[in-house]
Design a protein that fits this description.
Length: about 400
């Protein structure tokens, strides 16, 4: 382990948005906590932030003036953005943390803007292979993807979740209506196509019809931007005639921990995950987990819970029934989950992070990033356009549609 770093080196984080209850946002706050405890000047620069977290962030535009020659940037890459391009163009040493980008085809016909952003983001990511001093995946699955894309220096900064957001006084106003003798099947995560919410509905439909008529499905997570997809899920529920499917939406931390408290089983059908923090949250809250064995999910579960590898609803429903009805099996599953969680928490996140920062601080300088000669001129024009959009929307709308500024 290298000698302890000089704490007067600023280490700032850059990401598109700091979301409330979001896995990337929680990790960014955890990184900042470690860095500040070590004595680093460490700020979080974002394009947008949840109003509840805005006081913890700085607008990404200020990063240009705030960066000193020895500043290290930790860039959370999850999608292409203006923030990402500014971070690329600055000459500072960079650690890139890759949170994985969902393949664009999942959003075809559902959210065209996000589909384009995911496609552009995957293309944009490749440019960082020669730009960053170190590229980290937050899972081995993500690290392998970086290596396959040609990043020469890779590593894993493991997601070691902080569960403070679940150690709050539960708000049982919502969950109290589900705290009864019925079986509660829970899924937590954004209601987006790669999570395959429609498969959860089909599994639940068979489980309820064949095994347990006093069961309900609780789907907890943001629906913003995917209203058409949620409507399609609603239509499926209506077509199947499946009662007791509750699309709850985004909740507070207090409501979330109360929902985990009333859950009997956590069910996931997601087909693309870079890590999947809710699985580990369920481990922590001692809720038995059953999940589809895709992408990073098997490594995240690390021998805990139960994995299934084909999506015949009858097959999955039979596993659900066994996990809910067999107390001995349930105890064995919970013991395996406890052991997997213990292995995860034994990882020294702080020491690993600080070691990577010191490695980058001592690394030889790279060639300055290659950007067009008019990059900063175009950036200034972009800021002027954004100001016009915010404060004089009618003037913004009057701009020629084919203008490069508008594009």
């Amino acid at each position: 382990m290298p000698s302890r770093p000089r704490t007067n080196v600023p280490v700032h984080q850059v990401l598109v948005t700091l979301g409330y209850g979001d896995a990337i946002g929680n990790e960014a706050l955890g990184i900042q906590r470690v860095l500040q405890e070590e004595g680093y000047d460490s700020r979080i620069y974002v394009q947008t932030a949840d109003p509840r977290l805005e006081n913890l962030t700085v607008n990404y535009q200020e990063l240009i003036d705030d960066c000193q020659p020895d500043t290290i940037l930790i860039h959370h890459f999850s999608i292409g953005s203006k923030t990402s391009r500014v971070a690329f163009a600055l000459p500072n040493r960079m650690v890139l943390i890759y949170h994985n980008i969902t393949p664009a085809e999942y959003f075809l016909g559902v959210n065209s803007a996000l589909m384009q952003s995911c496609y552009a983001g995957r293309r944009e990511l490749g440019a960082y292979a020669s730009r960053c001093h170190l590229a980290l995946g937050d899972s081995e699955f993500n690290r392998r993807e970086l290596a396959q894309m040609g990043f020469p220096r890779t590593g894993v900064l493991p997601v070691v979740p902080n569960f403070d957001h679940l150690e709050v006084t539960p708000n049982r106003l919502l969950a109290g209506g589900f705290d009864d003798a019925w079986t509660n099947i829970l899924c937590v995560g954004r209601l987006i196509p790669n999570k395959k919410i429609e498969d959860l509905v089909r599994f639940f439909h068979v489980y309820r019809l064949k095994y347990n008529p006093t069961a309900r499905l609780l789907l907890v997570g943001s629906q913003r931007g995917f209203e058409d997809y949620v409507s399609a899920v609603d239509d499926l529920v209506a077509t199947l005639g499946t009662p007791d499917v509750h699309l709850i939406g985004h909740v507070s931390n207090e409501e979330l921990t109360a929902l985990y408290d009333v859950a009997d089983l956590f069910l996931s059908a997601s087909e693309h995950e870079g890590f999947c923090v809710p699985l580990i949250e369920a481990f922590y809250k001692r809720v038995p987990v059953i999940a589809f064995a895709a992408t990073a999910v098997p490594a995240t579960m690390d021998g805990g819970g139960v994995l299934y590898d084909h999506k015949d609803p009858r097959h999955v429903a039979s596993i659900m029934n066994a996990m809910v009805s067999d107390g001995t099996l349930q105890n064995e599953i919970l013991r395996a989950q406890d052991a997997a969680l213990e292995r995860l928490l034994c990882r020294d996140f702080a020491e690993t992070l600080l070691g990577f920062v010191e490695q980058v601080r001592q690394a030889p300088s790279l060639e300055p990033p290659r950007v067009t000669l008019d990059f900063w001129h175009q950036f200034d024009r972009l800021l002027e356009t954004e100001e016009l959009r915010q404060y004089r929307p009618s003037a913004f709308e009057a701009l020629p549609k084919a203008s490069s500024v508008r594009d």
